[in-house]
Amino acid sequence: MAYEVLMPQLGLTMEEGTVSQWIKHEGDAVKAGDVVVEITTDKLTNEITSEQDGVLLKIVAQEGEDVPVKGLLAYIGQPGEQVGETTAPAVSAASAAPSAEPAAALASAPAASPAAGGKRIRISPLARKIAGQMGVDYTVLTGTGPSGRIVKRDILAAAEAAPKAAAPAPADRKIAAPAAVSATAFPVKNLELMEGDTVEKLTGMRKVVAQRMYTSAVEIPTVTQTVKVDVTALLAFRKKLKEEGHAFSVNDFVLKAVAKALRRHPEILVSLDGEQIIRRAHVNLGMAVALDAGLIVPVIRDADLLSLEALSAKAKDLAERARANQLGADEYKGSTFTVSNLGMFGVESFTPIINQPDAAILGVNCTEDELVMEDDGTIAKHQVLRISLTFDHRLLDGAVAAKFEMTVRDLLEHPMDILL
Fold first, then answer.
1. Is 25 a catalytic residue?
2. Can you give the residue ranges of the Lipoyl-binding domain (predicted)?
């Protein structure tokens, strides 16, 4: 009997993955443990291996296609073995367990029955689910996916073109709110292309970043407060340590100062869950790392318990492995506060977007020379940088946020206090 290759769930929050590249092709021999396909999900590329020997009989999900968890990717079996209807990805029986939200969503969508003339409707499971949530009749649509398959963008385009077409559901029927989709979906604008323009699909890491940044910006009422920090003493202290054989970056000192300040101000470590406030027990520092394909935030867990040396080593290790696409799924989840440093790019000031479910994020800017009048009236050159704290005003007030920033500032201006 043919074996189904399904989209795995690689994290608790994973809902779908994108087929990046088929390593094996239809007709290729496959042994147990061989890599069959690469998928991209939650900002990482993962390899899917075969669980048995055989032949790749049929590829169902094409490269670049989004497939929900447990969605069918391909069949592996014996040469010449017949497989079921594969004109559209199907969700396996394992994923068909009772669930209130999916069942309700599907209840509002037209049944997946053959269309007029006996021709089967080709639609991806994700598109069918979104159609149910948004009240779109997909049976009248023409798909733009592979082989004319109806995909998510077709449903979203139909919903945008006819937002009032969906009939109201009966009062006793529970249907997932459209807002659940719109929080991670973007309106279709049908922009006019000009000569030389190219079009590419929003996929993989860039898609995840876009969705999360959009959701954060839409859902959270934010305020950004910027404080100037005199780092003249810090840079001199860093230089002295380097001469003694201890090399630390400015970012290392910032991370250590932030971790220490968060322990003094636990009120910053909160998250909003509906109408509940969750007070976090751990200082788990998210550290934004820029990649060619987007942005990823590996997490330094219990950063307040680490020495400067240990924190520096951990930060460097996570950043290196993030750039090499070698992070595990648990290494970029669970942050309780995030630091985004653009100082090395010469950025003087910016407004970082909160990394949900954190309540705040600290932006670190570049170091600049500034003339300062000393107490004795003389003029001297100092080095200053600005830190920009963006916070969720539903959870934190300006004075609370300012006190935290003042603590970070004081620690950075008196670097020995960071180590004590």
1. no
2. 2-77
